[in-house]
Amino acid sequence: MEKPKIPVDMILKHLAEQAEVHQVRVQKATDVLLGNLDTEIAATPYEVVYEEDRVKLKHYNAVLPSNETMRTPLLVVYALINRETMLDLQPQRSVVKNFLSNGINLYMVDWGYPTYKDKFLTIDDHVNGYMDDIVDFVLEREKVEQINLMGICMGGTFSVIYSALHPHKIKNLVTTVCPTNFDTRQGLLHIWLRWLDADKMIDTFGNMPGDLMNFGFLLLNPARLMIDKYIGFLENMDNKPFVENFVRMEKWIFDSPDVPGETFRQFIKDLYQKNLLIENKLVIGGRHVDLQKITMPMLNIYAQYDHLVPPEAAEKITGVVGSRDTENVCLDTGHIGIYVSSKTQKEFAPKIINWLKAHEGRYEPAGRDDTESAADRAHHPAKNIYPGVKISEESNHAGKKELFFDNLQGKQGIRNHP
Amino acid sequence: MSEKEHAMPDLQTMVMEWLRAAGRFWGEPGREDGGPADEEGRSRQAERFSIEAYAAMMKTYHAVSTAMSEPSAMDSLLRTTTILPDITTTLLATGMKGYFALQQQIVDKIDRIGNSTDSYRIDNIDQETLRAWSEIYQKEIRQYFNIPQLGLSRFYQERVNQTLDKLNIFSTALAEFLQLLWLPFEKSYHMMHEKIEELIRSGNLPEDTRAYYQMWVKILEGHFMNLFQSPEYNKALGETMDALEDYLAARSRILQDMLQTLPVPSRKEMEDLCKEVYLLKKKIRSLERANRED
Question: What is the pTM of this model?
């Protein structure tokens, strides 16, 4: 018998089956939604060790004995957009927990919620003010001469600027989904922000409203972010862990502090519109941000399907800094997925941990002159000077190395300078 | 004097008699010896003041009545009755003329509005209607909000008018922008129809209803991506943001006017204060740092 062109009977049968499934789902979903849900985010214990205005510094409680903890602390600088809680969104997918369980002494900047009085704060105030004060505090508290610095998204851009202005305080630099090259048409954000009248916007709003930015981010892909995402929720709302994680993500994504007006204005005009950073022409607080001064090892991780910071916006920085030890890693995921997807949990944090451990023993004389050129700097190969700390990937993540590298896409490895 | 004359006195005499009588009548309470105020003590002072005010008013009325009872004034009064129809006719004629001129102006405006809408096509009626309205508003209506305001409250009224104007412009821009956002939905529905027809022809129609949704959302995403890259969308987004900012700035100016009447600092004052604190903190920080380095 010939197959009918429109299998009406099959479609109707399927619809009837679906209706039954939906009915059962709604019943279960009612129990889930009315029951106790654990939707807490940023649950890993920490202590606020430093405060300045709205800015706080979190220090996470170590989970390993001190002789198994890396001596050089890692300071994580998040973006001014959204909150750093994303790194500790859920217990099973927490970059913070991953770091701690692998012996990283972790500090994290919480930028807080800017109010109207913060509208005058510039990039200079954030980088040479708050960040520098925090770095000095950590150096003193930990009795070390340098720290490891990790910047996320806009926080990555701040970290690049900081490392260029204060290179002697930074031992290793890690940037993740960090926009540094703004001359690209790969992402819609880059297209839209090019024509944005930042002056008028900031003169009107004072600070850049978080909700307005969130609306802009939703508009980047409304079909997925405003429709498909919630269809997915409806289809899984009988699944308690799914609902809990979904709500955690919703909590994080719509927790959007405003961005201080002058910082936003400067970021849009000098970076998005004039692309001064990668062209090595940026001036912050009256000082030239010379990328050649970034001579410390640099690990740059970005995402293949990032719609906010596309690969072209992130990958070029390693080619223009003064360091000889740079590495680009492109992960097969998106801007947020890099931190929270189950797949990249096995790649992202382990890569950083192993890279930092491999670079832990690098000797760096303190108080070095800022003007020292890259060519003058001696490069010291990684060596383990802390016997209690396992630095080899084989010993710490045995069996994962193969998987990790199989899952990576794009460039990786030590770049050879011409 | 004839009997008829006795029975019906002329109008002038009647009015004069009436005015004299009124003068005498209203004059009574005004006499100082006739008021109850003389008999009352201090406790009734307030009552006396009101009676005195009443007496003063009556005196004025008495004076006017007396003056009006003079023959010359009576002549003038009676002449008024004869020219009143002429005055009324002139006033009415002027009013009607103004009214017809206004009507003509409105008709002209409607005519121009008609010309504006003619230039747009009917096949894209939603978008064209919005554009037409935008053009009509800019050319024919907006000027009313820019009529110069006069008097003590002119600045306040001007700011209210400006806010209404900016609100209208923002509403129009937003409607156009939302209409653009709706286009991918329309297009994806059309494309879905075509795709389903194609699948029917090839006999590959999916049985799972979810497959249709997946198909639709993928098409929709594609249309959105095309739209977002288009110059039209970027222009509309820019205009909407501009209009929103203009409206918010205008609204803020009105709120500042209102705040001036309340015992709270205005935004400008707070801004100045915040800036001073910011600069002071910056100075202290740099001094602290210099001190540390020393």
Answer: 0.73
